[in-house]
Write a structure and sequence with these properties.
Layout (H helix, E strand, L loop, with lengths): L3 H4 L3 E4 L4 E4 L9 E4 H4 L13 E6 L9 H5 L2 E8 L3 E2 L2 E2 L18 E7 L2 E6 L3 E7 L4 E4 L4 E6 L5 E8 L7 H5 L5 E6 L2 E6 L8 E5 L4 H4 L8 H7 L14 H11 L1
Parallel strand pairs: 10-16
Antiparallel strand pairs: 1-2, 3-4, 4-5, 5-13, 6-7, 8-11, 8-13, 9-10, 9-12, 14-15
Length: 258
């Protein structure tokens, strides 16, 4: 699969192994692998069977030269590939994590874009769960104060690109302690369905949202690769490193998400 148009640099996906291959400016190193055994604490059924390796994380990905300015400003670009399929009745998903606070006291945000496949993003804070369905080219901006899980609900691999502050360290304990997100995404008779996680008391309200508008996250046009946009004008994405200075953005995003 040629990912070049969606990523903004030469890259390919071996769909059988779900590993990335580069070309030209970038050659991927070995990814961090999330194995099924490591995912058992957050599965609906901890004994469920599925692929031995569920997803692959390439941190600090992409050609170095174009993103030199972004890296000087503290930004990091990652790629993640999720296998298709099920673990028991659950669709393959990420472990789930929360975000630490930036030096300015506000939790870091994170900017995602789907490069290939179909995703459900499960965002949650203490009061609510927001489910966002996204496809190729769609962006999802994770605002301060939200943890999240990403689920591969499509028939093929899911490829995600994201930008985040380079000092960001994911916090996994909250998801580990409560056996995952507040909802599980499982296979139903007509496709994916949500099922409440009984570890959450009371169960938070669930609502549906839409991908984040391109102009809101800083893109010039729909579907523009976030790699290209950030490398061109990294200062436009300073909100990823200094969230307290972007209060107007978070207010607009909250209004958009309803």
């Amino acid at each position: 699969m040629d990912l070049t148009p969606r990523l903004g640099f030469t890259a390919f996906l071996d769909e059988a192994s779900c590993r990335l291959q580069g070309g030209g400016q970038w050659t991927p190193g070995p990814p961090d692998v999330r194995a099924l055994e490591a995912m058992r604490p957050v599965l609906a059924d901890p004994a469920a069977q599925g692929p031995a390796e569920l997803y692959f994380m390439y941190r600090g990905a992409g050609p170095a030269a174009p993103q030199a300015g972004a890296r000087r400003r503290g930004l990091r670009y990652d790629l993640t590939v999720l296998r298709p399929g099920l673990v028991g009745r659950e669709y393959v998903k990420t472990f789930g994590h929360e975000h630490p606070a930036a030096p300015d006291g506000i939790a870091y945000p994170e900017l995602y874009q789907v490069a290939a496949g179909r995703a459900w993003f499960i965002l949650q804070d203490r009061r609510t769960v927001l489910v966002i369905a996204a496809g190729p080219g769609d962006c999802v901006l994770i605002p301060p104060g939200f943890g999240h899980v990403t689920v591969n609900v499509g028939p093929g691999p899911l490829v995600l690109a994201n930008w985040v502050d380079g000092g960001f360290t994911s916090l996994y304990d909250g998801y580990r302690q409560r056996r995952g997100a507040a909802v599980y995404v499982e296979a139903g008779s007509g496709g994916p369905v949500l099922r409440s996680n009984p570890a959450y008391h009371p169960a938070p309200a669930v609502r549906w949202g839409a991908p984040t508008p391109p102009d809101l996250v800083g893109l010039q046009e729909p579907g523009e690769p976030i790699f290209t946009a950030v490398c061109r004008d990294p200062d436009r994405f300073a909100y990823l490193c200094r969230p307290a200075a972007a209060a107007a953005l978070w207010a607009r995003l909250d209004e958009y998400d309803g």
